[in-house]
User: Fold these one by one.
Assistant:
Number 1:
Amino acid sequence: MAIIALAALWLVWGSASPSHALDSMDANREKVSIELGSNASTGYSWSYTVDKPDIIKEMSSRYVDGTVPRGHPLAGAPGKQVFVFTGQKPGKVLVTFSYARPWEKGLEPAQSAVYIIEVYADGRLAVVESADHAP
């Protein structure tokens, strides 16, 4: 019984574990999806900056709730934020994600993730480099 209670507490208050997952690391895509671990119940969310905004365009951004093994959403469970980008013109772009509470101005983010996305002349994209950083 105690183990079940501890597991439930971990699911409700567990950390966001903001690591990333990519749907593709190859150049045969017309879009790139970047998934970042998140927990909306903590107030933290991912935002990003782009060094050359004319090279890529965000097509969508959404939060996906965490689920328990039977597939039902669980309030407070870690989920993920999914960002989808398409190419606008050939080139390489640096995308820097920050995991922070939007109302806490002037503080370092709890986590960051950096991606270099390359857009090829035929419009296909690839993530050519990525790194996670914790303060």
Number 2:
Amino acid sequence: MTRENLAVRQRNGYRNSDKSYRAAARSNRERGGRKIGLPIGKNGYIILEDDYFVSAAGEAARKGILMFASNFQWLLVCLGNPGKEYETTRHNIGFMAADELARREGVKFNKLRYRALTGEIRAGGQRVLVVKPQTYMNLSGESVKLAGGFYKIPPERVLVISDDVALPLGKLRIRAGGSAGGHNGLKNIIAHLGTDQFPRIRVGVGAPEHPEHEMIDWVIGHFTSKEKKTVDEAVGRAVDAALCVIEKGVQEAQNRFN
């Protein structure tokens, strides 16, 4: 190896002592990964995101190694409000769906990034980033824009699970797009994505019997013990519907679950 070639390899972080990191990057390329380093000065890169090699990222960044990260094909957004006091409320049925999905898949959605608790599943051979926004419902779009923007996920592959007071308790409605229907979380997502053309699964939580009942009090109110069985079944069906949308498309999911 010439002195000039060695200098080029060193400048890009590929020194003899970095064999393990080069092997990791090579392995990630074989998995379809993409470069995500940004040059800093003349001699290195800064790591923005690294799903495969988190433990190595700090050392790799110090050495200036260009790392890689694989893309997600879908973003599954499960809406709700953070905090123990909201766990079993009507507005949190999206979070309940995420928890049921985590239970089924044997994973945890506990990595905090993009202003959300996140985790990964695979469905139909595709990588799915699941997010539970921690911004509170009315600012959910901030999380969606950050995650979707980073991985360049188009709106038609951003699938949202939310509650719907216009539907009877337990009923599902799957749509390929459309208005927010008065739902502030969906409204904020539409504002941040700049379009309402993204699929969503709306889970009915019913409406208050008395017109004088404040809607905000209703949606942050807790399900009753009598409603629990219906809610649990609806959450399970919402997860089934989400997987169906990802694996077989919106039309098939509508035919099966609407």
Number 3:
Amino acid sequence: MMERGRRRKLLGVVVSDRMDKTVVVEVGRTVRHPKYEKTMRLRKKYKAHDEKSEAAMGDLIEITEARPMSKTKCWRVSAIVRKAGALIEIGDELAEEERSEPQPQPAPETAPAAADESVDPKTEDSSDSSRDQT
């Protein structure tokens, strides 16, 4: 079979899988502004053909450029790099490990009883008395 030329490949995250045999993939990239030289994060959404409907929301997938299949769909899912469920399972295991470790109890606060409660009445009344005199 002959090679049809170099096809672009992009890596992105599935943001929608509601359509039949189609997924919406968000691809992010960083670009420096030509004048202000600030690094900007840009993202673009592509519709990609998923023949077996294997990709789900949150999956990291690789898409390859293909012939147009509809007005807006000209990409094909070539590989699922990482499933979204794998991240959740790892997070649950970490959460269980954190729960099993004993949490250090904070020491009870002992406030000095006489030092904080005693307020000099002259300092409070002196501000009030100066207002009354004017």
Number 4:
Amino acid sequence: MTATGKIRHSPAGRSNAIVKATSRAFEGRLGNPVHEKYVLRLYITGTTPRSCHAIANIRSMCEEFLSGRYELDVIDIYQQPEEASEQQIIAAPTLIKQFPHPIRRIVGDLSDRDRVLSVLDLNLKPINPVHA
């Protein structure tokens, strides 16, 4: 309806083209979840054994399941307490998956692989399988 109260009709071909273009744009923005880049932040407390285990565990899982598709920031809350405060970190190590959404958190040394993969929504087959 226009400002004058008249209904404006578009030629059928034009409206279909607009719908198709809009659908393509929408689907393109959704992205392919298998190829989404993961943004992870790991909050640790210095070089304690739990912190070192958490770093090793998440790096191993990222390389195995997200090779080339992740960004991992490791934040020492002793050196950057403002970061911990902003994210309301009350225990360490804490891993936060910031992207893709939803934002998820897991606390601990990340040694329970199944739990970590579930929290990260990584119920995938490994990209780079680790052979025993």
